[in-house]
Amino acid sequence: MAETLKKRSEVPENLKWDTSRIYKTKEDMKAGLDALKSLSAEIEKNYKGKLTDSKTINECLSKYNDFLIMVDHVSNYANLNLSVDYTDAENARTDAFVTGEYMKELARLSFIDSEIDQAPENVIKEAIDTATISKNYLEDVLRFKPHMLSAETEATLVSMQEVTSAPYQMYEQTKLADMKFPDFEVNGKKYPLGYSLFEDDYEYEEDTDVRRTAFKAFSEKLRDYMYTTAAQYGARVRSEKILSEIRHFDSVFDHLLFSQKVTREMYDRQIDLIMEKLAPHMRKYARLIKKAHGLDKMTYADLKLPLDPEYNPKVTIEKSKEYILDGLSIMGPEYQEMLKRAYDERWIDFAQNVGKSTGGFCASPYQKGSYILLSWNERMSDVFTLAHELGHAGHFYNCQQHQSYFDNECSQYVVEAPSTINELLMAEYLKDKNTEDKRFRRWVLASQISNTYYHNFVTHLLEAAYQREVYKRVDKGESVPAETLNEIFKGVLQIFWGDEVELTEGCELTWMRQPHYYMGLYSYSYSASLTIATQVMKRIRREGQSAVDDWKKTLEAGGSVTPVEFAKMAGVDVTTDAALLDTIDYIGSIIDEIETLS
Ligand SMILES: [Zn+2]
Q1: Which of 585, 290, 308, 539 is CA-nearest to residue 417?
Q2: Is the pLDDT of residue 470 over 90?
Q3: Residue 157: its pLDDT value, please?
Q4: What is the Å distance from ligand 1's center to 528 Cα?
Q5: Angle, to 10 degrees, between the axis of helix 380-402 and the axis of helix 438-447?
């Protein structure tokens, strides 16, 4: 594959996204950077030392909102151009230069938060009452007040950030630069091994000997770095604990959930219920894979196998447009218009070229339309990935038309709901469309499990269950050496898979594979978002237009509401366990149907 990859310069325009929607040329971007610097200087000159009354505070925040939009545009422009070709030295230099420049300006304006925090509570409350765009921003400042430290300490913490974030950098370096995987051999044939090669290919490999040997070779290499990785991770969780103490949080959990606006109960519920209630369904799914592939036993190294690997319909980009427009037509004409624009105005980068970032993502610079990075392989699964990313695009498209920059970011708890609901709507559409073709229906159902639900409700959830145990120990002041981490991870797997899956040696090292652990309580939120998405999808199927209208209003609200309010606007109550229990039943019903069709 590697030798046939095109250079970026050889990729046809229609397969590339169009960053000229942000700035026409690089010169325009540089002019944008200059404008941003002038605005920053102006804000400092006019407002520093003067944020003592509500009128001035709101005026300043309005300018600050404009400034952040400019940062958003220059940073996205530089970063998006780099992400499609990391081998382009010129783009790398530009990105590093731009980042350095706007970081300086952000530091210059850090007085804003400190001064508002120092203002008397009644002044902040008055500012909230009279605010046009900064109400939520100010409420967040007020909410954080009990945890804010002196201006001097806050400044010290900011300047130390480079060092406190070092464990994550070290983790990535260990994983991506230091770890060199040797070839492995099966029946006299040699196979190359690498981190993404294992996770993207060998885990799905149908040849059982190759798959299991790859797992063994991969695990052996991981084990060489076990103590280093545990030390990095240990430093990260300790620093989070220390911060939670100096900021006067009751526990490290309270600290980490604070910015998500999620209660401990909501967090625990996701983990507790899925561990208990989803497990029996997933064990049944594991039995189905075992049977489909005629395996002697089901092992940890076999779990990613697709149910029907020979069946994977090919889809061209042109055809994908038809699927996407038809599949998501239930969302109404405005949403359709946005989807058409995504294709016509080149929001999507389909290309495969040397140096392009691997993961799919969607970036949405404020009011400029979205940028979706993909690697199109002409597989039906690519259509689902595209529908997912277009869900993020649709979310920010709607939200940015109605909210200030301050309110366009939303809690981790809900951020994957607009994306995953599109996967579900696509699946429903395909099922409706092909009522006769049983194999196709089974394939759609199996994809729903192996892609949508497995990823969000199993992979990340088991990580979340492990992570919770780690933090519980850290909260008690205990250390978490490598052996403890292994033991915790294996324990979680044992609880979930029971006797159904043989826990291959090396499974306990899975904790070494997830960068999310360096981003706080992230892993659990996938299932939380997908719970909302499942309920809204069911509501749309049941009630039609009124449910679609509510969902559209929810998307428009974006980050201006809390996760509980967000879900409520869409007609879902996440304050009790009903939505999650129903979602687990739904997953069970899909697996039951797959069994019937098998
Ligand atoms: Zn996503």
Answers
A1: 539
A2: yes
A3: 85
A4: 13
A5: 50
- Please give the distance, rounded to the nearest whole angstrom, from the Cα atom of residue 54 to the centre of ligand 1: 38
* Ligand 1 centroid, distance to 178 Cα (angstroms): 29
Distance CA 192, CA 214 (A): 9
Question: What integer best gives the mean pLDDT of the chain?
Answer: 93
Q: What pLDDT digit, counting tens, does each position of 3-38 carry?
A: 467 899 999 999 999 999 999 999 999 999 999 999
Other Cβ atoms less than 10 A from the Cβ of 69: the count is 18
The string of DSSP codes covering 96-118 is HHHHHHHHHHHHHTTHHHHHHHH
Separation of CA 317 and ligand 1 centre (Å): 20
Question: Is the separation of the CB atoms in 354 and 85 below 8 Å?
Answer: yes
Measured in angstroms, how far is the CA atom of residue 393 from the centroid of ligand 1?
10
Asked whether the predicted pLDDT for residue 2 surpasses 60, the reply is: no
510 neighbors 489 (Cβ within 8 angstroms):
yes
Q: Which tops the pLDDT comparison, 237 or 409?
A: 237
The runs of H, that is alpha helices, within 403-437 are 412-415, 417-433
The rounded Å distance from CA 361 to ligand 1 centre is: 7
Between CA 417 and CA 583 the distance in angstroms is 13
Distance, in Å, from the CA atom of 313 to the CA atom of 380, rounded to the nearest integer, reads 6
**Lookup result for tokens 């199996």:** 446
Report the alpha-carbon distance of residue 349 to residue 552 in Å, rounded.
26
